[in-house]
Design a protein that fits this description.
Chain lengths: 501, 326
């Protein structure tokens, strides 16, 4: 009952014609920011913070606007993943794996609607989880130390081999390239720069947005140039957009399971939305088994990562609000926003500022509903992008990519790096090495290293420390099973195309 | 179709350009560079000081804020030294982190004497905290435990190894006559809140950070602050003892201030110092400090420059002992 009363308080704060208008505007801007390669939810929100200052918005209005942009970007990221095979932001990475093949088959509309529904389910689940469990879940963060985090990242890397079904060795090489790139920058445990060549631009490491846009969008452009504008993989068959009830029904359990996995990953500070969508995808893949056809354009492969990353986005708000510890890059920016509004998230926030917390939760629910309503009709507009000839579309995407990346730090060095990643992506694709593990290596590698280094500092280099808690041991077991099981299963199940490689 | 797509492109371009557009500055108006993304401490310094400068009439045009993140402030520092060394209308946000990194040569060879530090007008007091159920009741308990067995206490803090949060407990230990500072365990995590989480979770035994980072955990009863690193007890937190009164005269505050390019005239430097003093004296700044957990700490002009020089020297010495200087 108390929860309902609180929620009523929240809606009384957040539900006015003015804030509703802000929510609609925020959702729309967010969707576009998410869909544009190079502009992700975190820099989208970061760009808008000064604007919300300039508009002189009060705390509630600013929060409504920012959360709408945040959720909107999480929705929007999938659009370019599905239509162009270019992830709009990092959590949408996994959606390319099945979303784009679906679009190529002519089911772009179905994939977009299905992923929109999956996003809604994931976000709704996470918001409800946030409402009911936030104070309890906040205690979970106290159970995760360096050893536990290391085991969690290890789990992610151990299941990575199965990501590209053709050749596990190539995925492993790709992941190693990513891990290598993640090593660039100032070493957090000694403060010394590594592999920077004395270049100040590399001190903060390689921004994964630069890597994503380079490896996907710019590499695509190189392929397009090579083929003289023919034979580009962009351009798909169109069909009438209807609501694919059959797919939604078929994937309803997948969405729920993926939401749970994503939410848990989001709640852990330091895991974040990308890990959420990755673990959601990989767990659904292993449930479906080889017959599930993940990676070939199956609806479950679209629903799982989208439900997962939106649930993780909501889950990441739990540690942010209750502890002040951001669970992802975007929540770090939202945290900064709250602090500029003179609200310091932390254990006393729910008690001292119930209007802010419940206003935020209400605005999340509003944003989620607005996005679902907005996205289904908008799909018709989005799929029409595909009828634009590639010779207009690709330079346009490139232009936006460069502008987006330049806006990150305002330095041309990032643009050079972008081109470098484009070249790398081109050669990797020529060699049939998947690029998704490279990104995951960059995204998760730095965190994994930090966790290991911290664990070693605390234990004086004693490796046994890594297995010192039941949680860590459980994650290690899961990681080992995740790594070994596919090797045995492969002999039992039918061999995929491994031999032809 | 094409028409719609072009619309999308234009919208995208507008969104993207509005980001870069915000960075361009009108000629003659003062510009403040925040060497980080919007939302952080440096961004706060620029926006608040810039706003108050204009509101109290110390400058006649609104101060433009430029965000220039990169290399922990090193990118902005390098740009100021190399490209804008005589720009009289430029101020740059700085804090203890700026001087710490300069002392440790973390700005790729740039040194502290290549700019002029014009003043600090507020500070976040340094604190050392333990979990509420910790056996350590005072700073003396903690120091005694480290003296007996350096490996028995691990600190967590929001800055990297060798950063300001790391140096705070080491300064205390040096006062206690402890010299083997390299043997003290420290892990750098993502911010003070994360450091508290690790400490309350029992993975580390103590947290080192700033007052503003611990306030809400303190109110919730999760932690106990065993020392604040200021001259006197902090208003509003009178029950927290200073390190000095526990026998360790250490003052370590995370000051918020500004530096200016080296090539400007002495008159202009004094002018900026005067403007900053005006901000420090304004009720608007008093309010901004109260809202953000900052304590008054005003040092401007030559006085501040010599404070910074001393700070850089002592941090450089300690960092060399720690082995974190590049």
């Amino acid at each position: 009952m108390e929860t309902l009363a609180n929620l009523a308080l929240g809606f009384s704060v957040a539900l006015s014609p003015y804030t509703l208008m802000l929510a609609v505007i925020g959702c729309f801007i967010g969707t576009i920011i998410g869909a544009l390669p190079g502009l992700g939810p975190s820099n989208g929100v970061a760009i808008l913070i000064p604007i919300s200052f300039a508009l002189g918005l009060d705390a509630t209005s600013a929060l409504v606007l920012m959360t709408s942009v945040y959720y909107g970007a999480m929705y929007g990221g999938r659009i370019s993943s599905i239509l162009l095979n270019i992830p709009g932001d990092e959590p949408a990475l996994m959606t390319t794996l099945d979303g784009y093949p679906m679009a190529k088959r002519g089911e772009a509309g179905n994939a977009l609607v299905l992923s929109g529904v999956a996003s809604f389910v994931g976000a709704l689940f996470a918001t409800i989880g946030l409402i009911l469990l936030a104070p309890v879940l906040a205690r979970v963060a106290f159970l995760f130390g360096p050893a536990e985090y290391f085991a969690l990242y290890l789990l992610a890397f151990c299941t990575l081999g199965g990501i590209a079904s053709s050749n596990q060795a190539k995925s492993a090489i790709a992941a190693c390239i990513g891990l290598g790139i993640a090593m660039i920058g100032v070493d957090s445990s000694s403060g010394l720069p590594r592999l920077t060549g004395g270049n100040l631009h590399l001190y903060d490491g390689v921004d994964f947005l630069v890597a994503i846009v380079g490896l996907f969008a710019i590499a695509e452009l190189f392929f397009f140039i090579e083929s003289h504008g023919k034979g580009s993989s962009i351009g798909v068959i169109l069909e009438k957009v209807t609501i694919p009830w059959r797919y939604i029904k078929q994937t309803s359990w997948t969405m729920l399971r993926a939401s749970v996995v994503g939410f848990i990953a989001g709640v852990l500070p330091g895991a974040g939305a990308s890990l959420g969508s990755f673990l959601a995808y990989m767990s659904e893949k292993s449930i479906a088994g080889e017959k599930g056809g993940f990676g070939t354009g199956v609806p479950k492969g679209v629903a799982a990562p989208e439900a997962g990353n939106n649930a993780a986005a909501g889950g990441a708000l739990v540690p942010m609000l209750t502890l002040g510890v951001p669970g992802s890059g975007t929540t770090a920016v939202l945290l900064a926003l709250l602090m500029t509004l003179n609200i310091t998230p932390g254990p006393t926030l729910f008690r001292d500022n119930p209007d802010v917390v419940w206003g935020l939760i209400a605005s999340l629910l509003i944003a989620n509903v607005v996005l679902l309503i907005m996205n289904v009709p908008m799909v018709k507009i989005f799929v029409k992008i595909l009828t634009v000839p590639a010779w207009i579309l690709l330079p346009g995407v490139t232009l936006i990519s460069f502008t987006g990346i330049y806006s990150l730090t305002g330095s041309y060095f990032d643009l050079l790096m972008l081109i470098g990643f484009g070249v790398l992506g081109y050669f990797l694709r020529k060699l049939d090495v998947p690029t998704v593990p490279v990104i995951l290596g960059i995204l998760l590698g730095g965190n994994m290293e930090d966790a290991l280094r911290r664990a070693m500092t605390l234990s004086d280099g004693n490796v046994a420390y890594l297995f010192s808690s039941p949680i860590a041991v459980g994650l290690w077991l899961a990681a080992i099973v995740g790594f070994v099981a596919p090797m045995f299963l492969r002999n039992i199940l039918k061999r995929p195309q491994a031999v032809t490689d | 179709m094409k028409h719609r797509f072009m619309k999308a492109v234009v919208t995208g371009a507008v969104v993207a350009f509005s980001a870069t557009g915000a960075m361009t500055t009108a000629a003659s108006a003062a510009e403040c560079i925040a060497p980080a993304n919007p939302g952080g401490g440096w961004d706060f310094t620029c926006r608040q000081i810039g706003k108050i400068l204009f509101d109290i009439g110390a400058v006649d045009k609104p101060v433009q804020v430029t965000n220039m993140p990169g290399a922990g402030g090193g990118l902005a520092y390098n740009t100021v030294v190399n490209e804008r060394g005589d720009d009289a209308d430029l101020i740059i946000a700085a804090s203890s982190a700026t001087t710490t990194r300069l002392a440790q040569n973390a700005y790729a060879g740039r040194t502290a004497d290549e700019v002029r530090f014009v003043g600090a007008i507020g500070a976040d007091p340094g604190v050392i905290a333990v979990a509420a159920d910790s056996e350590f009741q005072s700073l003396n308990d903690l120091v005694d435990a480290i003296l007996a067995d350096p490996g028995s206490v691990a600190f967590a803090g929001g800055s990297a190894v060798g950063g300001f949060d790391h140096l705070k407990p080491l300064m205390v230990l040096k006062e206690a006559g402890f010299t083997d500072i390299g043997s003290v365990k420290y892990i750098g995590v993502d911010g003070g809140a994360d450091a508290i989480t690790q400490t309350v979770g029992g993975f580390t035994q103590a947290m080192t950070g700033d007052m503003s980072e611990v306030v809400s955990f303190l109110a919730n009863g999760d932690i106990r602050v065993i020392a604040v690193l200021t001259d006197e007890r902090v208003p509003g937190f009178e029950d927290i003892p200073t390190a000095t009164e526990q026998g360790f005269p250490v003052v370590a505050v995370n000051w918020r201030g500004l530096y200016v390019p080296k090539g400007i005239s002495d008159a202009r430097f004094e002018e900026w110092a005067g403007k900053l003093q005006q901000v420090a004296d304004s009720p608007e700044w008093a309010q901004a400090m109260a809202d953000n957990g900052l304590a008054p700490f005003t040092r401007v002009g030559g006085d501040f420059q010599s404070y910074v020089d001393g700070l850089v020297d002592s941090i450089a010495t300690m960092s060399a002992e720690l082995g974190v200087t590049q």
